Amino acid sequence: MCGIVGIVARSPVNQPLYDGLLLRSTAARTPRASSRARRNSFHMHKAPGMVRDVFRTRNMRSLPGNMGIAHCRYPTAGSAFSSAEAQPFYVNSPFGIVLGHNGNLTNSDQLKEEMFRTDLRHINTGSDSEVLVNVLAHELEKASVKLRLEPQTISRRSRMCTAA
User: What is the mean pLDDT of the chain?
Assistant: First the structure.
């Protein structure tokens, strides 16, 4: 089964994220799994395969922080066997954004071309989710005022991306 787990807590979230992925993926044969935790920087571990096979103790130790997202999905675009295409996706500019996405972007080829033409953004994989996080980053950058974002702006621009 596909799924996204997001947690914000006062204590480390690496174990609850892992547990959430396990619960989501018990019916899946070959989900793609990944995790991310944050503490003034992004920490990520991702790879294709079953959740229980992707994460080891050493991987869990490298995911500090009290907020994070985790993702497992049957890929509908791109490759099921590429670590680069496992989610979530991260873009550094303009604000550092991490995105996990379950769905299909039917116009991803058109948007990929547009992102390069208008913003010189390079999409490195065949994943429509990487296209989506770059579209969101582009919209947030356009909406920011002196590199400040208000919650309403994020919500409004996110809705614009899903309507694209």
Answer: 77
Helices 128-143 + 151-163 axis angle, to 10: 140
- Which pLDDT does position 29 carry in this prediction? 34
Strands (E), the chain: 3-8, 32-38, 42-48, 67-73, 89-91, 97-99
Q: How far apart are CA 153 and CA 69, in angstroms?
A: 21
Catalytic choice (2, 47, 67, 160)? 2
DSSP state of 153: H
Residue 30 pLDDT level (bands cut at 50, 70, 90): very low
Whether residue 2 lies in the annotated active site: yes
Contact 64, 35 (CB under 8 A): no
